[in-house]
Amino acid sequence: MSARHSTGRRAGLHLAGLLALALSIAVAITIGPAALSVGDVARVVGEHLGFGEAGVSRIKDGIVWELRLPRTLLAAVCGAGLAICGAIMQSLLRNPLADPFVLGISSGASTGAVLVMILGLGAGAISLSAGAFAGALLAFGLVVVLAAGVGGGTDRILLAGVAGTQLFSALTSFIVTSSADAEQTRGVLFWLLGSLAGAGWDQVALCGAVTLLGLAVCLLCAPALDAFAFGQDAAAALGVPVAWVRGLLLVVTALLTAALVSAAGAIGFVGLVLPHAARLLTGPGHRVLLPATALIGAIFLVWVDTAARTLLDPQELPVGVMTALIGVPAFAAILYRRRAVA
Amino acid sequence: MTVHAREVSWSAGGRLIVDAVTLEVAPGSTLGLLGPNGSGKSSLLRLLAGLRRPSGGAVLLDEHDLRDLRRRHVARRLALVEQHAGTELDLCVLDIVRLGRIPHRRAWTPDRPEDDRAVAAAIASTDLQDKLAQSWSTLSGGERQRVQIARALAQEPRELLLDEPTNHLDIHHQLDLLSLVAALPVTTVVALHDLNLAAMFCDQLVVLAAGRVVAAGTPAAVLTPELIQRVYGVRAVVTADPETGAVAVRFLAHRSPPRSPIP
């Protein structure tokens, strides 16, 4: 909707973002203990896509195709998905500090996934995601009920989110320490801090599909999201079926958060900070903002995860630690700007 | 035909806020909604806009019950300017005026020429040409109201509802804004506090007290010292201009503790 961008500039912006993302992924894959070139990466990908012999060693092929490529792609997908969730929640709740992590949805998803894992319900990525989805919805419901109970203001929902985050983090730790073996206990760090270390192609496929679907639904709702700028009544007066759109988008963000958390744990601050960066670039119109947010989120998490796995080599930092180290100062900057406006 | 409230009631939290109000506006005219704080003016406007569902009676648009019409359809006919519009987003004037085209557009169609025409016309009639790129957060109160009216006009409504649009404006901007509203070729319902402004700019007045209509008619017929005493608990002298017949209200200071207005 933004008036500041013609259709041409809009397309150019998105194309440049896509190129930057592709380049980021290709370069990020070459970084690490095993020496690789962008050419190696291109040849391996080419071979697996059926464009003839690559002529690179089996080890290099394995490193690219089995380890670094799925991990980097999962980083891109998670970054995109979490950033979209943040942008949607900020618009729907009219609160610049809303995101799935701050509102406790990521924590709820972690708890759900851990419960499924430890109780051994079902098997594989799908049941883990189902557990995470149930946890995400439960956490979101709890936060909404709590916020409505104390007066329903937009700032109240953040306080309710803080309470929800603490509760579900405690529950996750409780479940793990009370009923898990030592191996699983170490795994709790994964759910609380987030990590892309265990990335595989099935997770890339699941999260990629859910993220693309989520982005498509959100884009269809882009004019409605614009209409929320002056609140729910203003949106309704502009012909938006408010309850329906809100319900749909909140379920979509919960589903998206759940899929991403079940694959990568609770990674914070991506959804909180990056939509603001995107808004600075594109303005507030959602038709331009949402794809830009997804691209910036993807590029951001690709590089942050690359840093997380190489900075302390051979030790690996949880990616959530890295995003928090970058995100907290950015969070403070947003609060400061808000104060300056108010 | 136009918007028409038939015996509309609405309650919130177990309290009856709007009590069997019937209200009809002549097409193209300006109707002023008067009444003390809490008399139900804002709630009635929300009912007329279809943002609240009546607990009794009905709001009709062209003889169709508003409840049976799609929200988008209503938004193409009828626009609302709220009393307190605010946003956290960094929107510029043009962004906001273009919001008015949302009910006319489909999600994935690019802007059509008629969208641009409607936006340009709305901007021209509110005299905002020089402020298009200005950010909402830097606008004055009067400018914000004009931007919201421009957004409402971009909806190309036949009915315009305004909730105390002159609140917090100085007298110059109050007169400016109401002249603009009265000159618009749409049917207008405007909630107002200032009796003199209501007398100047409205064709018809409806006075609410405790959710009920206590008087309705032309300004000269409605604004009597007796009514002002009864509804607002204030003594006033009402004079009519011998030439134009326009009424003016002059308030008198309280001599004794004011009698509380009718409940």
From TrEMBL, chain A:
It is found in: Cell membrane. Pfam families: FecCD (PF01032). The chain crosses the membrane at residues 72-89, 101-126, 132-150, 157-176, 188-205, 212-231, 243-276, 288-305, 317-336. Belongs to the binding-protein-dependent transport system permease family. FecCD subfamily. Coiled coil: none annotated. It is a multi-pass membrane protein. Keywords: Cell membrane, Membrane, Transmembrane, Transmembrane helix, Transport. InterPro entries: ABC_BtuC-like, ABC_transptr_permease_BtuC. One of its GO terms (cellular component) is plasma membrane. One of its GO terms (biological process) is siderophore-iron import into cell. One of its GO terms (molecular function) is transmembrane transporter activity. This is Iron chelate uptake ABC transporter family permease subunit. The keyword Cell membrane applies. PANTHER family: FERRIC ENTEROBACTIN TRANSPORT SYSTEM PERMEASE PROTEIN (PTHR30472), PERMEASE OF ABC TRANSPORTER-RELATED (PTHR30472:SF67). Gene3D superfamilies: ABC transporter involved in vitamin B12 uptake, BtuC.
From TrEMBL, chain B:
The keyword Transmembrane does not apply. One of its GO terms (molecular function) is ATP hydrolysis activity. InterPro entries: AAA+_ATPase, ABC_transporter-like_ATP-bd, ABC_transporter-like_CS, P-loop_NTPase. Keywords: ATP-binding, Nucleotide-binding, Transport. Coiled coil: none annotated. Pfam families: ABC_tran. Residues 3-235 form the ABC transporter domain. It comes from the Bacteria. PANTHER family: ABC TRANSPORTER ATP-BINDING PROTEIN, HEMIN IMPORT ATP-BINDING PROTEIN HMUV. This is ABC transporter ATP-binding protein. It comes from Solirubrobacter phytolaccae.
